[in-house]
Design a protein that fits this description.
The chain has eight helices and nine strands. The chain has 267 residues and is α+β, with helices and mostly antiparallel strands. The longest helix has 22 residues.
Length: 267
Amino acid sequence: MPQATSDGELSGIPVAETDAGPPRAGKAGAREPERRCIVTMERREQGEMVRFVLSPEGQVTPDLAARLPGRGAWVTSAREAIGLAVKKGAFNRAFKAQVKVAPDLADQVDQLLAKRILDQLGLVKRAGDLILGFEQVREQVRKAPPAFLIEASDGSEDQRGKVLALVRGLYTPEVDETGIPVGNQELPPVAGCFSADELGMALGRERVIHACVKYSRIAHAWGGELARLSGFRRVWLPGWQPKSATGRQTEDTQARVSGGDPPDTPV
């Protein structure tokens, strides 16, 4: 595994190059292209990363949608990776120039991702794939397994417990005699990173405490944005993260940028 030296260079590996411009839209069903992180030198799917471009004034600018013109540099979507890119001058190396970088760049990306996610939630609502309200969510959950549940961070713990108990009772996977889940059934992820006021503002209501997202293409894309945000803040309720999310992206990134190995998975 490549190791970062004290001056930020990576031993034994050439400095990562920027891309030639915003990625072109791929064919439906095609695998997402991979990009190399300018900090860890690790290749990841671009949906797990954040693209940065230079403004006309030479300012490093987040390009969350990966559509802005010009050459772009990619960083793993995690607070530690972006913080190290700022600290070690990785953007100067990638763009081969002295660039301007805000010291709070990681905070900027956090806030921009959160806004993007809330804006997209409005699109999910307009598509008819979002159910709002305590009783309405419980009714929908009884009809079909949801893609995601949303629980306001400042909502009633009693009501949240009732929603989650219903979901757990309906969709907890069966296990065999060795404790291994049988079949494809799994508990839906539960996002709990937004307040009732934040959700309400995004959805044109005073407050939103409980919501349910149906399975759809737009819901899948929305979940990908939540995964990116999880590198900056706690997104999922404990024990209710997506099956594909280990919850260790931040720890994994910390290890790689320092040249170490990821920590052992807790038993």
